[in-house]
Amino acid sequence: MEQLSVSELCGYINAVLTSDPVVSDVWVYGEVSNCKRHSSGHWYLTLKEADARIDAVIWRSTALRLSYLPQDGMAILGHGKVELYNGRLQIYLDFITPAGEGLLQAQYERLKAQLEAEGLTERKRPLPLFPQRIGIVTSPTGAALQDMLNVLRRRFPLAEVIIAPALVQGEDAAPSIVEALYELFDFEPDVIIVARGGGSIEDLWAFNEEIVARAVFASPVPVVTGVGHETDTTIVDFVADLRAPTPSAAAELVTPDLVTLRDELISHVGLLHGLFQGRLQLLRSELGQQQQQLLRHNPQMRLHQAHEQVNAQQQQLQRTIQRMLEMARLKVQVAERSLVALNPERTLARGYAVVLHNDRSLTNTSHVAVGDTINIQLHQGQLQATITELRD
């Protein structure tokens, strides 16, 4: 018989517990007692019923993302795993909710909180404007498929539609949806629709499974969900890039409307035509200005302009010289008349004479004396005389 130490026995029991699929992933009902929050942020409590109890721990990291915290006397439904600690069984809780909400709702809230904590609900990629290839994951026999195909043919018949059939209800639905998604990935669609018609929470439960949510998040292209009716919200709706209220609405969201596109195109063509005409007119005006500038800077034109300027200046110079010559001629004529008027010969011709003494004109008797010799210049000839008498 094998003998084990206490620590070996505890280790063996703990190994059995952690490998057991039931106690390593278990939901448990119970009433909270001895609930305490440690200064570290961890919560320690006991879950009990009439004849049984188990210690429970909520780590600080878990408590921070819980929307619901325990209190003494509260009946809760908790999820976690059972392990052995210091020889005592403990359940480490990663999610709790009021016991009255039911197991399915509790599982839903736990998975939603877990995916939010991992950031899987934050990615929202834009949809392609003009998808060339659209993938659809849904039941091949459901009315939802025909509704979507009708919408796609009406709105955007240019797109190729690839259908990946899958079970959408029952125990095998979740792995079937995952398989269909990964098959679609190989066809490289531009966008994927995951859809099914309405139903109860049990009917739609495959779309609340973790493997489906992670497969949707793994999609290399945007995913639009259209699961159930407008009031139905599943886990994949949070992980998808866009949620549509119905399958038909999902088909509308992933496609443009050709009629609307045509009207917008006509409007844009008119706008572009107006812009083109305005731009053309502006270019014509700028071209005219450039032509004028080229003409002004053309060498032949500049030579012609210089030649014209030289001719104009030459004519102006000729006119100026002519005026100067005319003015000089007038001045000469005036000077000639003045010279003629002042010529002593003319005065002598009228009978006047010029008296010279020592070759200088004599104008006053005080400049000579009796006995001086003077010369008298007549119009014709000269006289020489001696002064015999002076009179004032």
TrEMBL record:
Where does it localize? Cytoplasm
The chemistry this enzyme catalyses reads: Exonucleolytic cleavage in either 5'- to 3'- or 3'- to 5'-direction to yield nucleoside 5'-phosphates
Signal sequence region: none
GO BP annotations listed: DNA catabolic process
**A Pfam family per the record:** Exonuc_VII_L
Q: State the source organism's domain of life.
A: Bacteria
This protein's UniProt keywords: Cytoplasm, Exonuclease, Hydrolase, Nuclease
* Domain OB-fold nucleic acid binding, chain residue ranges per copy: 4-93
| The protein's Enzyme Commission number | 3.1.11.6
Q: Which GO terms describe its molecular function?
A: exodeoxyribonuclease VII activity; nucleic acid binding
Q: Which GO terms describe its cellular component?
A: cytoplasm; exodeoxyribonuclease VII complex
**Entry annotated with the keyword Lyase:** no
Q: Which residues form the Exonuclease VII large subunit C-terminal domain?
A: 122-268, 276-385
Q: How does it assemble?
A: Heterooligomer composed of large and small subunits.
- To which protein family does this belong? Belongs to the XseA family.
Outline what the protein does: Bidirectionally degrades single-stranded DNA into large acid-insoluble oligonucleotides, which are then degraded further into small acid-soluble oligonucleotides.
Put simply, this protein is called Exodeoxyribonuclease 7 large subunit
UniProt source species: Herpetosiphon aurantiacus (strain ATCC 23779 / DSM 785 / 114-95)
Taxonomy of the source species:
Bacteria, Bacillati, Chloroflexota, Chloroflexia, Herpetosiphonales
Q: Which gene encodes it?
A: xseA
